[in-house]
Amino acid sequence: MTVDALTDVAGVRVGHATRTGDGLLTGTTVVLAPEGGAVAAVDVRGGGPGTKETDALDPRNLVQRVEAIVLTGGSAYGLDAASGVMAWLEEQGRGVRVDLDPTHVVPVVPAACVFDLGRGGDFRARPDAATGRAAVEAAAATAPGARVPEGCVGAGTGAVVGAVKGGIGTASTVLDSGITVAALVVANAAGSALDPETGTLYGELFRGGRVRHPDAEVHAAALRRLDGIAERNGPQPLNTTLAVVATDADLSKAQAQKLAGTAHDGIARAVRPVHLLNDGDTVFTLATGARPLDTANPLALNEILAAGADLVTRAIVRALRTAESVDGPGGVWPSYGELYGHLHT
């Protein structure tokens, strides 16, 4: 049975640590690979990224597999969360062995952050190593194939897309080849996810079939509400959308990097504009290697590439539709559901 989430890729687990109250509106999400790690890659398209250990994922470099990926709030400060994940992995003996002693490992933990500083009211309230440890422990405690909480959780707790509340979304599919592809997204963008003419989510336009647009009067009321909120919130120029695309296909690091690159198309379909100088849009990929590609078909990777982009789009829609409104000292961000209802759920 599948749950339409990143965890449909066998062995992949997801854990959130959510921090709210006392000036906090932030958190950390950890994607934990199967023990022994997974082939990983990254593609950064935003002009203002905050990342850690992404150079290790270059196909030209030594590291072949990683044990976990960290997505976190707190901007560059929040990258401290990766230290807590590294400490936990070391205790489990998971990482790159550096000598004959099996306990001597160095976990390589790629990480990326979103900007959510001050969204709970306190600019200095942000994830730390303890937050990262809580998230990885939550991931390890989940059952195989567990459902993944979506919306305002983990790294998506303080996320905003344009003027509406963002969050975490996830989606998966099984291809005709039997290969599973899945995505998890932290939707937190400077651009908008809403068609200004109709109020429809851009990402809905790519799902196929007839799209039911919001009623004109509902859209007009939403625009009036958003205009009023913009005056109170002031400018929100710093954001970032993060994604992890996972598959059980047996990919090389170069193939995984190609998947990370094409998956960015999924962001571009759902948010406009994207990849700005004040975004840090970053996509990671994980390939567990459980299912071989058809070596007789040099284009066998194409269906995975196409699915990755489609799933990122769908995950962003899920993030917007599961997010909940926030009205606090750090600002007001209504959810899409509050503004337009749940027409497509």
General description of the model:
Helix 1 (81-91) crosses helix 2 and helix 4 (253-270) packs across helix 5. With 345 residues, the chain is of the alpha+beta class. It is globular, with a radius of gyration of 19 Å. It has helices at residues 81-91, 129-140, 216-233, 253-270, 302-322, 336-340; strands spanning 13-21, 24-32, 38-44, 51-52, 65-66, 68-72, 96-97, 105-106, 111-113, 160-161, 164-165, 167-174, 180-187, 242-249, 282-291, 326-328, 331-333. It contains six helices and 17 strands. The protein is 25% helix and 25% strand. The strands form five sheets. The chain has a six-stranded mixed beta sheet with strand order 5-3-15-14-13-12.
Task: Considering the chains and any ligands shown, give keywords for the structure.
345 residues; alpha+beta; 6-stranded mixed beta sheet; 5-stranded mixed beta sheet; 25% helix; globular
